Amino acid sequence: MPRLRLALAQTNPVVGDLTGNSRQILAAATTASARGADILALGEMALSGYPIEDLASRPSFLAASRTAVESLALELEAAGLGELVVIVGHPDGPFEPRLLGTSNAPTAIAQNSASVLQHGRVQARYAKHHLPNYSVFDEYRVFLPGDELLVMRIKDVDVALIICEDLWRDGGPVGRVLEADAGVLIVINASPFERDKDEVRLPLVTRRAVETDTIVAYVNLVGGQDDLVFDGDSVVVDGRGAILARAPQFDEHLLVVDVDAASATDVTLPDAVHRVTLSARGGDAPDEERGVETPTIAELPDDREQVWNALVLGTRDYVEKNGFPSVILGVSGGIDSAVCAAIAADAIGADRVWGVSMPSRYSSDHSRTDADVLAEAIGFHYSTEPIADLVMPIESQLELTGTAAENVQARIRGIILMGLSNLDGHLVLTTGNKTELSVGYSTIYGDSAGGFAPIKDVPKLLVWELARWRNEFALSRGEVPPIPANSIDKAPSAELRPDQTDQDTLPPYEILDAILDAYVTRALGRDDVVALGFDPETVDFITRLVDRSEWKRRQGAIGPKISGMAFGRDRRLPITYRPSNAH
Ligand SMILES: Nc1ncnc2c1ncn2[C@@H]1O[C@H](COP(=O)(O)OP(=O)(O)OC[C@H]2O[C@@H]([n+]3cccc(C(=O)O)c3)[C@H](O)[C@@H]2O)[C@@H](O)[C@H]1O
Ligand SMILES: Nc1ncnc2c1ncn2[C@@H]1O[C@H](COP(=O)(O)OP(=O)(O)OP(=O)(O)O)[C@@H](O)[C@H]1O
Ligand SMILES: NC(=O)CC[C@H](N)C(=O)O
């Protein structure tokens, strides 16, 4: 059996940065070549970053992408890497437009493509067939589908190539892999992290390997892009479904593995298959001269560690890719701000985190002392800005009472954080969790003010779990646990009036999160939620709060998606909405 050495690079591109992303690809190619690889594959759109959204409708961006692919091929050749087959994803076009509406509507003129580079030029190109148009994906809006499977004959092995969603759909290119009798199937991906996604993704990869009787090499991007976090977790599986190699989650990594693939046959190719023959690296040099690559098979960490790592990477990449020197947040002694501060410190280092305690006349002693303990444990920059004297004049001049008065405190805190952000360039982190966002339990333009929301997709019960996990993790490494025990154990409170607790307004979090899971995540109607055994009045109260606060969410900051139903593009509902009966 011929042996191929595959290198899969989990790079972390920045959308639009064709020059920087090309540098990442060149670096991966240099290492892959030094390790004797025949083929280097990178994630979907590794050259442009993913998703490029309506940039795909700009001819100038497409022209720049084409130029970047051609330049990359020349640079590889100039660097002495021309023998290596490099598979790189990028948008391609412009093509004959598919009109989507009026003449002003965005028009699909691009394809989601992969170019095969060797000897200083593009040897072949593949265009993605299946354009996902659900959840966070809008590819049908901006891309034209491809209609041919690409097979590369290299070292007497037929290597088929497809792109991400193509693997998820029966029929189309994946259906033709078996007919083409390919020995290896390379899939380049931009597959965002979701809790439990691995329970779907890995079985899918192994199922396709068995169905198509090929070695499947699945390579995914890594890194944060706005609200998405790509987790890497690239994997190579043999035709019986056994894992041959697996890259770590959330890290840039080059996975190198030797595969013994079936020899190419002279089967008659189905119509929609294009085959190219590429020269073999190193000519006829015997495989033994390259030595043996011992493949790594990374273990997946447990659920809480995966989620923590996703939040940290999503936060870090938002800060770094948008050029912020530092972040700032209000620290109240409560669990949400404590967890956000710990995420921020893990993401960019405590010396780039600013925490501000902003006590009001209702702030408890423990809110200050717990914030002090947090600051000491994490070691971020810490200051105190009392707000009582700032709140008072507004309250009295406007004669505000009740919630109207309470919200002034949260808004003054927002003004302080935004003022310091304007002064020193910090990114403001807003600390709302998914439970609060679901029911609108935050003050608009107050504690919801901010540019990035690290825990916006984390329900309250999971916030507590993550806090406990992070502290245990610190202890297991002989480090100081970052989150004060008291912040975890005490009853949550907004402290906007004397002795307030969240449960004055909301049901216990065990019940609230369970109802939200049914209504928001599983999108059940009101009656179906009640049928799960919840008190009908509580269900009515909560579903009404959820519906009524859609407008607040629409104005809210983005934050890392960790679930299959994150607020934002996963869940698109009208703001103006009057349910006539149970929905
Ligand atoms: N459909 C719609 N479209 C556009 N705007 C709409 C709107 N519905 C209300 N509004 C506007 O929204 C205003 C009401 O919203 P908002 O000003 O936010 O105030 P509101 O939601 O009434 O009160 C804030 C709630 O969040 C709680 N809170 C505050 C701070 C922190 C925490 C915490 O523990 O995390 C909790 C607080 O205890 C209170 O229950 C209205 O006065 C109106 O201006
Ligand atoms: N005294 C305070 N000092 C500084 N920031 C505050 C203060 N009170 C509230 N904030 C800011 O407003 C946010 C929302 O307040 P809230 O009290 O709801 O959250 P929390 O204290 O972090 O968590 P919990 O909801 O568990 O109490 C806080 O996370 C914090 O960023
Ligand atoms: N980029 C894509 O085509 C991604 C779609 C795919 N179903 C995934 O999440 O992995």
From TrEMBL:
Domain CN hydrolase span(s) in chain numbering: 4-261
Amino-acid positions noted as binding deamido-NAD(+) in the UniProt annotation, renumbered to this chain: 407, 436, 552
Keywords of this entry: ATP-binding, Ligase, NAD, Nucleotide-binding
GO biological process, one term: NAD+ biosynthetic process
EC category name: ligase
An annotated GO cellular component: cytoplasm
Pfam families linked: CN_hydrolase, NAD_synthase
Residues that coordinate or bind ATP: 330-337, 431
Catalytic activity: deamido-NAD(+) + L-glutamine + ATP + H2O = L-glutamate + AMP + diphosphate + NAD(+) + H(+)
Listed pathway(s): Cofactor biosynthesis; NAD(+) biosynthesis; NAD(+) from deamido-NAD(+) (L-Gln route): step 1/1
Region (Disordered): 484-503
Cross-referenced InterPro entries: C-N_Hydrolase (IPR003010), C-N_Hydrolase_sf (IPR036526), Gln-dep_NAD_synthase (IPR014445), NAD/GMP_synthase (IPR022310), NAD_synthase (IPR003694), Rossmann-like_a/b/a_fold (IPR014729)
A single GO molecular function term of this UniProt record: NAD+ synthase activity
Active site: 44 (proton acceptor), 128 (for glutaminase activity), 164 (nucleophile)
Signal sequence extent: none
Function per UniProt: Catalyzes the ATP-dependent amidation of deamido-NAD to form NAD. Uses L-glutamine as a nitrogen source.
Name of the protein this chain belongs to: Glutamine-dependent NAD(+) synthetase
Organism of provenance: Glaciihabitans tibetensis
